[in-house]
Amino acid sequence: MKIGELSRATGTNIETIRYYERIGLLPAPSRTAANYRSYGDAHRARLAFVRHSRDLGFTIEEIRSLLDLSDHPERDCADADRIATRHLEQVEEKIAQLALLREELSRIVGRCRGGIAADCRVIEALGDHAQCESAH
Amino acid sequence: MKIGELSRATGTNIETIRYYERIGLLPAPSRTAANYRSYGDAHRARLAFVRHSRDLGFTIEEIRSLLDLSDHPERDCADADRIATRHLEQVEEKIAQLALLREELSRIVGRCRGGIAADCRVIEALGDHAQCESAH
DNA sequence: TATGCACCCTGTATCAACTACAGGGTCAAG
DNA sequence: CTTGACCCTGTAGTTGATACAGGGTGCATA
Lengths: 136, 136
What we know:
- The structure is a homodimer.
- Helix content of chain A is 65%, strand content 3%.
- By secondary structure, chain A is an all-alpha fold.
- The first copy, chain A, has a single domain (3-109), classed as Multidrug-efflux Transporter Regulator, Chain: A, Domain 2 (Orthogonal Bundle).
- Chain A has a two-stranded antiparallel ribbon with strand order 1-2.
- Chain A is elongated, with a radius of gyration of 23 Å.
- The termini of chain A are far apart.
- Residues 130-136 of chain A have low confidence and may be disordered.
- The structure holds a DNA duplex.
- Chains A, B: Keywords: DNA-binding, Transcription, Transcription regulation.
- Chains A, B: InterPro entries: DNA-bd_dom_put_sf, MerR-type_HTH_dom, MerR_fam, Tscrpt_reg_MerR_DNA-bd.
């Protein structure tokens, strides 16, 4: 498989594949006579693992740990669960934070009745620090 | 006000204040004889506006537009409402996306019963692309 | 007077996770 | 024989800061 095919097979940008290789997330594949990268099915599976993990929001370093575990099936897998659990907590935290943010934005938005900026409640709300504090 | 005082007054890192000046978000203040930056209350208000906007997740470019409106009170403020409304939509989209993510992470997490990585459901779930697809 | 300390200055490098070229090589079809 | 699709390396840019290195300033204290 050439890099373009791997790219299509996994929905990953070609530049991103080369980037993953450069940072050591994917092993360097063998090369053809023309110095083209040549991938096999193991590469495809590993890249799919990485993409799926990235889609779930794991960082590259977390994925490194997860791949390391995946490469050493005899090891204790408690780490994997720990990484995933912590990540889930972070996601939940982020959701809570965005929900607060949505509250405040909702209060700000839609209060502009087409006037001039001098009377704009949106601009006013952004400048007014007290309004933010008292709202919480 | 010296930069350290402005920093404490607005809860903004000193380096960040200088960064905002460098990218033209804050006007360059006058200097003391010793070449120290010297801020007034207008600077403080403008920085508070920026910080509040950043806390709400507006990008620097959006803040530039909002500040521009704030600087020209005679202009139509429909833009401000448009920027805030679009941002609210983006926040809502992000929340929805993170909620989906939380679903999948919840399914993955906690299935590890302390065995070895070979049997780990977390690792398995990450590698298994089909499981992800079918789940949606 | 010296000296220590907190504060300030500029300029550049670093972070995450990519993405986007520039400038060149390879290969098959028309 | 040339056009086009594909591949290569290496470097620079993105966002929103943050972190020095290497130096200057200003005030209190020994």
